[in-house]
Amino acid sequence: MSRPVRSKAFDDYCRTMMCPRGHRRSITFIEGSGAEITDLSVRDRALLENPTARFAGQPVPGFLRRLRRLGDDVLGGVTVTRFRSDSVIACGPCGEEWPVFVPALGGAVQVRRERAVRIETTPLGEEVSTIDHSAVPVDSTVSVQISCGWTKSIEIEWGRTTTRTGTVRVGASHGALSLSLQRQVQESLNERHKISTQQAQTYATSVEVRVPAHAVAEVVTRWKQRWRVIEYDLWVPEGEEVTVVCRLADGPSYDSALRFR
Ligand SMILES: [Zn+2]
Q: Is the pTM above the cut of 0.70?
């Protein structure tokens, strides 16, 4: 596993004493419950282990000097003996959280939050099944098999990508993420939804209809692709929290109607 690196939000906080949205001295440290990080770089280790005591009598690094000067009793005064990979810093005024560490470059994209936004549908076509009961003298109930091909996929609306701090950018025509980050995000969400390849699938079911004696009936089925629109807050390796909007094709839906010829 590659060594985690300090997130930009945490790094910026150590330098500026402000949260990424500009709230001053408002950060609290929340230790996570995940894996303990044991291979910290020397500077990060120094920051964690009672920094004010450790640097007593030595030239104090700039960020610690600032911590002391501002009298911040959160990071500067508190002894943090362990740092867990999923620890966060939280800002009171904006109620937001940022990771302390992000995976090193080449690490994985992490899903921080998932929000269901809405369900959308798009037409998948019409299916007509004919039931010829012209020679059947009684009313009867008939079960009609219907089926539809569809493809499980996830489409990310890159143009609607937003970043928490505005630090991740490239590709003007592709929102705020570089092509390599886009690929990583796509792969991560594919994995999350178990989409290995965009394989065509068939959805089959049956509908029951009541057909009168001597009638020729048609079951008209309008198939629709159901899309779950989802927002993901992600931590991307190269930067900060990124929010992407995507549409997950998770199966067809349909309306069936009966008509007579
Ligand atoms: Zn804030």
A: no
Q: Rounded to the nearest whole angstrom, what is the distance from the C-alpha of residue 110 to the centroid of ligand 1? A: 22
**CA of 86 relative to ligand 1 center, distance in Å:** 19
Round to whole Å and give the CA distance between 227 and 249.
5
CA angle 239, 116, 185 (to 5 degrees): 30
Tell me how far the alpha carbon of residue 137 lies from the centroid of ligand 1, in angstroms: 76
193 close to 81: Cβ distance less than 8 angstroms: no
Q: For 99-142, what is each residue's pLDDT tens digit? A: 787 665 456 788 888 999 999 999 999 999 999 999 999 999 99
Cα(164) to centroid(ligand 1), Å: 11
**Ligand 1 centroid, distance to 231 Cα (angstroms):** 22
Reading the block at residue 219, the tokens are 């079951």
23 φ/ψ angles, rounded to the nearest 5 degrees = -80, 130
Report the pLDDT value the prediction gives residue 172, as an integer from 0 to 100.
39
Q: Locate 83 and state its tokens.
A: 């740092």
